[in-house]
Amino acid sequence: MSITDDPAVSVRFVVTIDGIELGSFNTCEGLGCEVVLEQREEGGNNGHVWQLPTRLKYSTVKLSRPLTRDTEKVAKWFASMTTGFSRKTAHIEARTGDGEMVARWGLLEVVPVRWTGPTFNPESPRVAIETIEIAHHGYVTEA
Question: Which phi and psi (to 5°) does residue 105 adopt?
């Protein structure tokens, strides 16, 4: 297998919320879920403690990228929260450098949590990075 055939090289993450594309992001952290367990001790059974699954807990997803013209789309989405909002469905697609989709995740009932803009400091010039953080209530199962 050559390097160009490896789908993990140069991955970018394209985010779409109810059909509105927010653009490509360089990093994506937090995709996952956790089963919350409740421990129960059974009287007379000292050999173990029962681990009972109760619910799923989803972590927030953080996406980062250098500032682009798509930053305006993110700002509009966050600003729309001040006039009320409805929970939306989001899709995150992992794509190779040539645009081929490697994987796709659908997130249910997305809510924006935080937008962090770049730090501008003339003493240490760096690429201006923005980060968005979104919460969700589960994954979409697609056929």
Answer: -125, 135
Extract long-range pairs of 122-125: CB within 8 Å, 24+ residues apart. Answer: none
Let me know if residue 83 belongs to a domain.
Answer: yes
Count of structural domains, the chain = 1
**pTM for the whole thing?**
0.81
Residue 141 lies in a domain: no
pLDDT tens sequence across 76-89: 888 888 888 788 89
Residue 27: give the domain boundaries: 3-135
Distance CA 17, CA 91 (A): 6
Structure tokens at 101: 């989709």
Q: List the one residue out of 140, 112, 139, 142 whose CA is nearest residue 58.
A: 139
Q: What is the CATH number of the domain that holds 64?
A: 2.30.110.20
